[in-house]
Every structure is written in C-alpha cells, then in structure tokens.
C-alpha cells in the first residue's frame, strides 16, 4: 500500500518526539499550577471548640490557600474535629463573648480572603452550637466508619485523656456514642475496666470457641440453688449471650468479675492471661461438679505426657503419667543468647531428653547402683484444643530483674503434632520390662515446666495414649491415628509492653467465615494473615548485633490450636437450636437492652446542670443538680427546681425564678424575662455533658420585684463604710456595663444605697492589698480594671504611706499538728528596725490575739511558704538587712527562754530524736550552732540527748517543714550519717536557719514488729500523714496473686497473700 500525501504514515521517530513534547507540555502545565499555588498567599485559621467545657482549651490549626471557598473551610473543620458538617457554626473569635456575633456563612462560594480573613496573620474562630443544638459526632450521624480502615492495627490502641494506665485503651476517635453502635464486623467488644485487657482476651477466645460456647449454653442455671450474682457459669452465659445479640459496640464485664468475688481494686491489677486461664478453668470445674459439664475442661483442653527416666545400662525405665492444660515453650534456652526460631523447634526441645551422668547419675532399681540414664518427657495424648504458652517472661540473674524476651518465634497456621509422638522407644523390649506398677511413681515431674500436673488421672482418655496396651497395639494405634494430629491455629493472644506491664489483645479466626479479627478491648476489626505474622516478635529488619535492642515489644504470648477432625469440629448453635433456657435468657437480655436504650434516649434529651439557691430563711447557699427534659419550658423547670430545693414552706412559687449564674465568680449573667414558654434546650444551648455556667433559683419577698440582668453586665459588690463608727455594712450588688464611666457608676451606687453621688468616695480593690481610688469621673470601668464579677473587700485601718508595707504575721508552732497559724495584719516601714516592729506588734497581739508577751520573749523570722527561715535579729533594718515587699509574710515564734541567737554567724537548726526501739519520734528542740561544723552539731545533739558522741547518727529532713516521714520508713529511708565535715556542702546544704535534723543512737536496735502490728502502724501513719498534707510513700507493692472466689467474696482470713 502506498500512502497518499493526505494520509501519510508518521515515522516512528516523529511519533516518539511528538509524544515526548506532549508529556513535557503537560508537566510544564502542572509545574506552573504548583508554582502558582506556592506563590498564593495562605491564611492561618485557629479554631477553638466552645461547645463543651472539655474541648474549650483545645484548638485546631488550618493553613489554607487564600482562594479556599468558605464551604471548603467548614468541610475541613468538620473533618478535623469529627463533627457532621452543617451541625455547627463558626464565628469570629475576637473576645470571649461570641453570643451576639453573626455566624460565618457556611455554604458560600466566596473565598476566605473575600470573607474578611487576613493572610499572614492569625485568624481566630470559635466553633459554636447551631440553633441551640450541640454538634453531632460524625460516627453517630453517618455510621460510615469502616472498621477495616479505621481500626485495622495490631498494636495497643492510644489512650484518651488519661485513670489511669495505664487510663483503658481507646481509639483516637473514641466517644461514648461509639460504644452504642455495633462494629461493622458484627462482633461486640469488651470494655476495659482499667487493666482487665488480659481477661477480655481470654473471654473473647472462649466465646469464639464453638465447643466451649455450645457446652456452656447447654448448662442450665437453677436460681433456687445459687445466687445468680455469684454464679460464674451463669454470668459467663449472660456475657456470651450479650456478645452474640447486643447491638452495642462493647459491653461491660463487671458482672463476670463480680461473680469471681473481685472488687473494683482487682480491675487495677494486671495478671498473666495464662494464669487466669488456669484459675478460671479450675473455678468452672468446681462449679460444674455433678453436672453434664463436669469433665468439659478435661475433654477439650487436657493432654497427657510421660515423665520418664531410663537406665542406659539395663534399659529399665521408671515413669509417671502427668496431665497438662497447656504446654509452656521456652523462647530462649537457659544460658543461651540464641532463641528458638519456631514453635516446632521449641516443641522438639521440650521433649529432648537429657543425660544424667557424673555426679547426676541415677540410682537404678534393677542394677542396684548409680548408672548413666536418660531423663525426658514423652507426649502420650494431645488434647482437642491445644494451648501453647510462649514463655516470654524470664528472670535476668545479672540485673536481678524480670525481663521480657521479644525474640522472633514463628508459628504455623497448621501444626502437625504427629512428629512429636516417638514410637522408637516403644519398640524396645527393655521398655516392656520397665512398665511394672512398682516403678510407676519413681519418676519425677518437671513441675517447673508444666502448668498443671496431677499424680494420677481418672478421666477418660480420648486421644492417643501409650501406657495401657501392648507395644504392638500401641504402635498400631499410633500409625492409624497419626494422620489425625493436624491442628489449625485459631487464637493468638498478644502482649505488648514489658515485664513491668503492658497490654493484651487477641487475634482470633472465626470458624464461621475463616476470617481473622483483632479483639482489642472495645474495638473489633478485620485483620489479615500478614497482621498475624507481625506478632512473631523480633525486629522488622536486620540490625546486626543490636537487633534485640530494636525488637518489637508486641508479640504472641499464647497460641490455641484446634484439632482438624470433621467428626468432632462443631459449629456454633443457631438461634433455633438454642436450649429453651437460653432462648428465655436472650429475650430477657434484649428487653433489658431495649429498656436501657429508652432510658439512654431520655438521658440524651435531658439537660443536667448545677442548680444553686440562697435559702430565703436560713440564708445558706444550697446546691443540687437540676435534671430537666430539653422540651420542658422555663416555667416548668422553675416548678421542678422549686420542689427540688424544698421551698414550699419558705416562699411562694411565683416569688421564684431561674437565672443564668456563674458560681465560681459569684456572678449573675442574665435573667430570662418573657421567656417562660421557651424550651430549656434552647435556653441552655442544647443538651451537653457539661455546661460552662450554672443556674440560680432566685427568690424575692412578695413586696419586692425582680431585677433585670442583661448579658454583658458586670456585677460589683459594694460595701458602705461608716467612718465615724468604723463599721462595714454587708455587701450590696450593683450591676453596670464596662463601658460606663465612673460618674455613671456612682449614680448607680447612689440609687442602690440612697447616698449622694457628689460626696461619695469609691475605693476599688482589684486584688488583695491593691486599693485604687476612683477619682477620674470620665474614665470607664474597663479602664479602671473591672471584671465581669468584682468581689470588693474593705478593711478598716489607716492608708499606707510611702515606704510602708502591709505584712501578714503568722505564729510558728513547731510541735503542733498545724505549725503555721495566722495572727494579724501589720504595717512595717522601710528603715524600721526589727525591735521597733516588735514594739508595734505588742499591743496588737494583746488586743487582737490575746497574747500577752514581752519584747524579749518572741522573735520574728523569715517565712517561705510553711518553712521557717532566717531568724531576724533586733538590730536588723528593713530594706537594708532584710528585703521587704508588698504582701510580705513573716513568722512570729514565742521563745521558751532567753534569745540565744545574737549574731548572723550563728545557725539555728530544729532537731528531733528518733527512738527505733520504741518506734517513736520526740518533739522538736532548737540547737544553736556557732559554726557550720558537723562535729559541733554532734556535740550539741549528744549534750541535749545524753547519747555518747561516738554513737550519734544524724540525717537531714526532706521536704517542707515539719519534714514529716512515716516511722516505718525513717530508719532506712533517710541518708543517715553523711560523710561530710561541714553542713553547707552536698548532700546537706544547710546554709540558713530552720533546717530539720533527725538523730538517733546507732546502738539502739529497731523494734521487731509482727505483721499485725505493722499493718496497724501503717494505717495510723497513713492517716496521720494525709491529715498533715504530706505525701505518703509506701514500699514497692507485692504482686497480688490472682484468685477467683467460688462463694462470690473473699474470706477475710484469706485476704493476706
């Protein structure tokens, strides 16, 4: 074919260059768009959520291009805070009061720059309620949160707020509403009570085990025989029914733990999940005695093994049969730095025999001498549900601390246990000769390795058992059943953290759809096989020598496999297959949940707010909580509050009203004139968990009228002072606006007090001792420093002159429970000596405090919070020798005798003797030293106590005066007898008066206490130290043993672990 001129073929080279130019042109266009976007000015928006007191201090920051439309701004804010777009308003945040500001237009295409936002500056916005309704949380509105994307993670979930720790593990977007909506996986989570994640992991695994759940459902509770509250099987049954039928995202486990006999303190104890498994199974066996389920745990979880010792000379073997509920697998052999690579390798090591030779030789009954022998374990029977515990917790004898081994250990999805039943030994004729009954109990069980060991077993063995038949029959039985020992993994219980503590969660495969799920407390999400592999442990990559330092602390701790046997593998019971008692229980729990849902709906529409009322007769402020439906009117709310405050016999209903009130500032914010028929939800700004304000039920006499309180007003309490009688009248509340002048404010006071404004002199106290005369009539109240609520206190006394300072005088009582007691306010002047100030204090102390002292019988000294400091000598001058300032505080100390402090070179310390043989502390005694010599201190202590100088031990007190410490801790916790020669060096640093010194006779023995005496002393000391406000310290807490009490409550005699 010959192409025409109009339709000529394009050469390949030309086509290549044409495509290349097209690509470059497109890239150039993109780059120009990026450059223009980079050049575009940006607007910084800072948004404060004011809809809730818990979020009012939180801010989100958006840095947007100036061309961003307003509707996109709202979308970005909604996405950031997790609210449904359109259920909140944004207003300018210039100032705290945003109630009167118009909200920003939400659906506008106008750019934020055109809407008044400024580039290069901070633009403050407030997120507020829309039409009086609180914003709706995204998850509760849309329900579109995808568990597979939002909650798909393997590690522990981040905490919110903070309980503790360890506050429980919740997701970042977790809220109360999310607990009310079921996960999209269809499974229900369990709420972490505090540190009960280990319990949640085990309960979810048992629930996802068809054979266990079905058997539990078949058991019927007899209420006439047992209290349902203390019945463990019944509470587990209820929990499983709720896990299967509840519409909530997560349910509580408190009823189950209550049936264990646990109180709330147990929720703060984290235990080992394998330990819990053993204890719970034991409790269930006790509860199920003489029932159809009596042998359920053994049938499902119990296996058998032989613990044997075989003589290597004659072949004689002594052995013992032991049972187990789980197989503990060592992660790293003792003394080795190399961990086992897989579960299979650890299983081989578990049954690997050891040779007893040399000093460890075994005494053979047949040879009648010590011989070399082989000692080991041999599996006889594997259970239907095989539990493997990976022993990740170990003890480091170098550091003498518990450690966690985070080494990598793989485990298969299908585990073939055929290789772990060895028939070679069974073919040997020597084995036959050593199975006589006389040798049955001669072996020793590896009790340190086995989780459960019993000396005998009466149960029916449904698996492979090698101890009963002839060798030929045993070998035949093994060969025929070997193919049946294939197990499939269905539960991985994971621990994240260290040996000191951490978090448990479970990865479980559902037998219904073969899908893996992560059960992480209240969160249930789909995961993949790759996520399971992440729990192998070890580091994510090769880091050479330092690999263990970077190993992940999140790894598998317990594995549960199920035997693949179509004849035994059960499916979960369908609803129509439930026993009659389970059908009734399901119906009962559904009704309770519906009732709870209705109650919750009422709660969601109920406004709960603090209510205050000044009782019209008793004149005391009463406090209560007002709960009123959001659709109830203000008039109806007044009636409810009237009855709640019990005012029927004190004041008529029409003499009461509700006003907006700020209890913290004692400020009446506004009244609600003409809004008697307005719903409370609208008045209060919607139903909220907490409100930024309170309500006051205000009362009046029948002949009085209510005052109108407008928003934006400030409230001032005015005291009228009569200078002639030197009396201060009770306060009168006057309301004004911050933009009003002092003259206008005086006119308001004149109306309230009936005093002439022209001759009135107003003094404003902004804070303590800061008095200001309001003498500029044109100045506004805001300029004078008024706030929305102003508490004014007027004290009688002359005005301070220049160089004078008001001083608070406290009495120092070193041997009293409260060593600091306020006496009076005094005035000290610059240039005054200490003796002159003492002379001025004498008549005031006599008149105001009833202290009749002479000038030489007391001293003044520095006060630093509660600590007594430098002793002021009579000749010291204020501002020259002693720094003095406004609001200064000073200690007054009454002396027992003549003042011993004469010079600044002296040092006054407070000593206290500790008597260990009596477990008692003596009173404080002052010791005045001429120097900072330790030797002089010892001499003075020996002089006042009679203890020989060489037997004096001393230590400096810790903390603030009086340096309280428990008598159970003082003997060993203080730094006794520091190796220094002077007091002003480390670790003492005693450079000023007032230091506390404890001392003792080092030859005096410590009293020996019984456990009862120690506990009694601990209670007394704890009470004493808490009353004095000092920190109580305890010795490290012993790890509490995990116990389940079958009668529902611990026996008081057994509470000491």
TrEMBL record:
Q: What class of enzyme is it?
A: hydrolase
Q: Which Pfam families match?
A: Ubiquitin_USP47_N, UCH, USP47_C
Matching entries from InterPro entries are given as:
Papain-like_cys_pep_sf, Peptidase_C19, Peptidase_C19_UCH, Ubiquitin-like_domsf, USP, USP47_C, USP_CS
Q: What is its EC number?
A: 3.4.19.12
The record places domain USP at 188-564
Q: Where is this region: Disordered?
A: 130-159, 426-452
Q: Which UniProt keywords apply?
A: Coiled coil, Hydrolase, Protease, Thiol protease, Ubl conjugation pathway
Q: Which reaction does it catalyse?
A: Thiol-dependent hydrolysis of ester, thioester, amide, peptide and isopeptide bonds formed by the C-terminal Gly of ubiquitin (a 76-residue protein attached to proteins as an intracellular targeting signal)
| Coiled coil region boundaries | 578-605
Which SUPFAM superfamilies does the entry link to? Cysteine proteinases (SSF54001), Ubiquitin-like (SSF54236)
Which GO terms fall under molecular function for this chain's record? Answer: hydrolase activity
Polar residues: which segments have biased composition?
A: 430-452
What protein is this chain from?
Ubiquitin carboxyl-terminal hydrolase 47
Native organism is: Apteryx mantelli (North Island brown kiwi)
């Amino acid at each position: 074919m010959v192409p025409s001129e109009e339709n000529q073929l394009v050469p390949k080279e030309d086509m290549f260059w044409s495509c290349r130019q097209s690509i470059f042109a497109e890239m150039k266009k993109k780059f120009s768009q990026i450059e223009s976007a980079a050049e575009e000015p940006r607007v910084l928006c800072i948004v404060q959520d004011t809809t809730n007191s818990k979020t009012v201090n939180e801010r989100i920051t958006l840095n947007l291009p100036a061309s961003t439309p307003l509707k996109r701004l709202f979308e970005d804010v909604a996405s950031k805070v997790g609210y449904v777009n359109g259920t909140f308003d944004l207003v300018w945040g210039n100032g705290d009061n945003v109630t009167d500001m118009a909200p920003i237009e939400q659906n506008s295409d106008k750019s934020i720059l055109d809407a008044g936002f400024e580039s290069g500056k901070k633009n403050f916005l407030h997120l507020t309620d829309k039409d009086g309704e609180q914003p709706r949380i995204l998850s509760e509105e849309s329900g579109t949160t995808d568990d597979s994307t939002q909650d798909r993670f393997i590690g522990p979930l981040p905490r919110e707020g903070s309980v503790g720790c360890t506050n429980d593990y919740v997701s970042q977007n977790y809220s109360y509403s999310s607990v009310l909506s079921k996960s999209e996986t269809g499974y229900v989570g369990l709420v972490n009570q505090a540190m009960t994640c280990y319990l949640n992991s085990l309960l979810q695994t048992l629930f996802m085990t068809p054979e266990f759940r079905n058997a539990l459902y078949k058991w019927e509770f007899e209420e006439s025989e047992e209290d349902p509250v203390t019945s463990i099987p019944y509470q587990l049954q209820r929990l499983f029914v709720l896990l299967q039928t509840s519409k909530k995202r997560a349910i509580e486990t408190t009823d189950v733990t209550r049936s264990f006999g646990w109180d709330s303190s147990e929720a703060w104890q984290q235990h080992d999940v394998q330990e819990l498994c053993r204890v719970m199974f034991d409790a269930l066996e006790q509860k199920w005695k003489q029932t159809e389920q009596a042998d359920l745990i053994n049938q499902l979880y119990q296996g058998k093994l032989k613990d044997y010792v075989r003589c290597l000379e004659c072949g004689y073997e002594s052995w013992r049969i032991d049972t187990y509920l789980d197989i503990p697998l060592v992660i790293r052999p003792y003394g080795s730095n190399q961990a086992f690579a897989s579960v299979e390798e650890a299983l081989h090591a578990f049954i690997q025999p050891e040779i007893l030779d040399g000093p460890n030789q075994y005494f053979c009954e047949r040879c009648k001498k010590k011989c070399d022998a082989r000692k080991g374990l041999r599996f006889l029977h594997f259970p239907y549900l095989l539990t493997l515990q990976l022993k990740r917790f170990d003890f480091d004898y170098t550091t003498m601390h518990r450690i966690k081994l985070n080494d990598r250990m793989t485990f298969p999805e299908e585990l073939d246990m055929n290789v772990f039943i060895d028939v070679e030994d069974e073919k040997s004729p020597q084995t036959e000769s050593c199975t006589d009954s006389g040798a049955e109990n001669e072996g020793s069980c590896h009790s340190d390795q086995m989780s459960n060991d019993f000396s005998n077993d009466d149960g029916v063995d449904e698996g492979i058992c090698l101890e009963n038949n002839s060798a030929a029959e045993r070998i035949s039985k093994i060969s025929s059943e070997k193919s049946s020992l294939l197990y499939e993994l269905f539960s991985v219980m994971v621990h994240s953290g260290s040996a000191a503590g951490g978090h448990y969660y479970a990865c479980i495969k559902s037998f219904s759809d073969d899908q893996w799920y992560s059960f992480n407390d209240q969160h249930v999400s789909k995961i993949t096989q790759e996520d399971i592999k992440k729990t192998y442990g070890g580091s994510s990559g090769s880091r050479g020598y330092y690999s263990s330092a970077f190993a992940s602390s999140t790894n598998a701790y317990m594995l549960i496999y199920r035997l693949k046997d179509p004849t035994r593998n059960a499916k979960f019971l369908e609803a129509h297959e439930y026993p009659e008692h389970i059908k009734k229980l399901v119906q009962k729990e559904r009704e309770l949940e519906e009732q709870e849902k209705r109650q919750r709906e009422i709660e969601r529409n109920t406004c709960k707010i603090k209510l205050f009322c000044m009782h019209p007769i008793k004149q005391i402020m009463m406090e209560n909580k007002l709960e009123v439906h959001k659709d109830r009117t203000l008039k109806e709310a007044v009636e409810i509050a009237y009855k709640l405050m019990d005012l029927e016999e004190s004041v008529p209903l029409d003499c009461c009203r509700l006003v907006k009130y700020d209890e913290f500032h004692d400020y009446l914010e506004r009244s609600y004139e003409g809004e008697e028929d307005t719903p409370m939800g609208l008045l209060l700004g919607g139903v909220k968990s907490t409100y930024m304000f309170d309500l006051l039920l205000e009362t009046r006499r029948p002949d009085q009228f209510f005052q109108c309180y407008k928003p934006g007003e400030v409230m001032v309490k005015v005291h009228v002072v009569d200078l002639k009688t030197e009396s201060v009248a009770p306060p009168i509340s006057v309301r004004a606006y911050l933009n009003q002048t002092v003259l206008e404010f005086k006119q308001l006071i004149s109306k309230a007090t009936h005093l002439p404004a022209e001759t009135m002199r107003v003094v404003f106290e902004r804070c303590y001792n800061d008095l200001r005369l309001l003498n500029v009539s044109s100045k506004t109240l805001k300029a004078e420093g008024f706030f929305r609520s102003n508490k004014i206190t007027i004290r009688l006394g002359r005005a301070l002159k220049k160089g004078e300072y008001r001083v608070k005088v406290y009495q120092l009582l070193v041997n009293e429970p409260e060593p600091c007691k306020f006496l009076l306010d005094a005035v000290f002047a610059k240039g005054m000596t200490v003796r002159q100030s003492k002379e001025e204090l004498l008549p005031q102390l006599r008149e105001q405090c009833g202290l009749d002292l002479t000038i030489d019988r007391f001293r003044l000294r520095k006060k630093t919070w509660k600590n007594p400091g430098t002793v002021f000598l009579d000749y010291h001058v204020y501002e020259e020798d002693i720094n003095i300032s406004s609001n200064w505080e000073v200690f007054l100390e009454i002396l027992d005798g003549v003042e011993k402090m004469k010079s600044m070179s002296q040092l006054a310390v407070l000593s206290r003797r500790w008597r260990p043989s009596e477990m008692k502390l003596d009173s404080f005694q002052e010791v005045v030293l001429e120097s900072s010599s330790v030797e002089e201190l010892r001499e003075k202590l020996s002089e006042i106590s009679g203890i020989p100088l060489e037997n004096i031990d001393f230590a400096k007190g810790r903390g603030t005066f009086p340096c309280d410490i428990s008598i159970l801790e003082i003997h060993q916790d203080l730094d006794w007898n520091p190796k220094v020669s002077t007091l002003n060096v480390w670790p003492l640093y005693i450079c000023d008066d007032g230091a506390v010194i404890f001392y003792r006779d080092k030859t005096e023995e410590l009293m020996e206490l019984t456990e009862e005496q120690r506990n009694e002393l601990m209670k007394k000391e704890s009470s004493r130290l808490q009353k004095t406000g000092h920190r109580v310290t305890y010795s490290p807490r012993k790890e509490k043993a995990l116990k389940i009490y079958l009668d529902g409550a611990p026996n008081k005699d057994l509470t000491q672990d």
